[in-house]
Amino acid sequence: MSIPLSIPNLSGNELKYVSDCLNSEWVSTEGSYVEKFAEATQEYTKAKYAIPCVNGTSALQTCLRLIDLKPGEEVIMPTLTFIAPVNAVRYFYADPIFFDCDNFFNIDINQLYDFLKKNTSYKNGKLINNVTDKIIRAIIPVNIFGNSLDIDALLEISDQFDIPIIEDASEAIGTFYKKNRHAGTAGLMGCLSFNGNKMITTGGGGMILTNDKKLGEKASYLTRQAKNNKVFYVHDEVGYNFRLTNVAAAIGLAQLEQINQFLEIKEKNFELYKKIMNNKNFIDIVSPPSYGKSNHWFYAIKINRNYHRNIPQIIDFLEKNGVQARPIWKLNHTQKPYKDCFHVDLSNANNLYDKIFNVPCSTNLSEESIMTVCDLL
Ligand SMILES: Cc1ncc(COP(=O)(O)O)c(C=O)c1O
Question: Most exposed: 9, 59, 210, 342, by fewest CB within 10 Å?
Fold first, then answer.
């Protein structure tokens, strides 16, 4: 593929730090780079605690363990998201319940508020979904394509209904709400992903963010096999082997050093796409919400309702011409394991589903490549 969708930019200190890590022989989960990467993430996001994990999915799983999610309980989430947070809920034999999205693709907060107001009650201090008679334990909003969530509105809901928020900010390192509140740091906990296609990568990796000391310490404990005594193998709880390796963290540290540069390029390229695309009447590039500063992780192109070509045709045409593009994820309420889960009206997500696709967005994308993509479109 001559113009790939999203590839990592490893032009900083990655090789240097990895060589140093290999020379130190600390290649597994102990080692100085894991600590350094966690500290750098803490400093960048201003989260009080940052706990490195093997990937974003395991970070989400750990957060749900930390709230002691039980089988049969429910977690509110958007239908329009990559499936990882949905699966994380099911690992506990709990049920995702699906909500619609707004025009920035994030969970529809007005719908969420209306639903909670009209259809929930409290029984023994627990929030009950009156429709299913099940306990609702948490809300997992997702920063889709790196778009900021409306944090104040979400926190109000969290307070009013006494329900914790676990932010899935996997796509959102570098995204800030109202300029200074980093994604994933407003709720009880938040998660980042450093998968290969993310803003910064560790190959595979993730991070739990929290401002709560107890949760931070427990997350660190659980992700390291719940080791109570390092020498004598005492484990008082069932833990996970979820800690990031030193090799991956070495890459992560080098990546994080470059984040401001990556953010600048992402924004510049977004503006260039926008300048060209938004002059067309059949196609638009979707702008992020004004209440936040987006990292512009993925650029979303929306086709006009009356346009005579559909997304598979467009993607196929681009592929044949050496440009990788991709459709939005199949909506989770239609995925086989989740098709029987409770959901509310999902008309906006259903409507957007076959109107949106993503175009190349790597930080090493040249202006010429962007022109090629736009010309083809
Ligand atoms: C919204 C969202 N949540 C969770 C994940 C899972 O992260 P990982 O692939 O690191 O497990 C991803 C991406 O991969 C994602 O896009």
Answer: 342
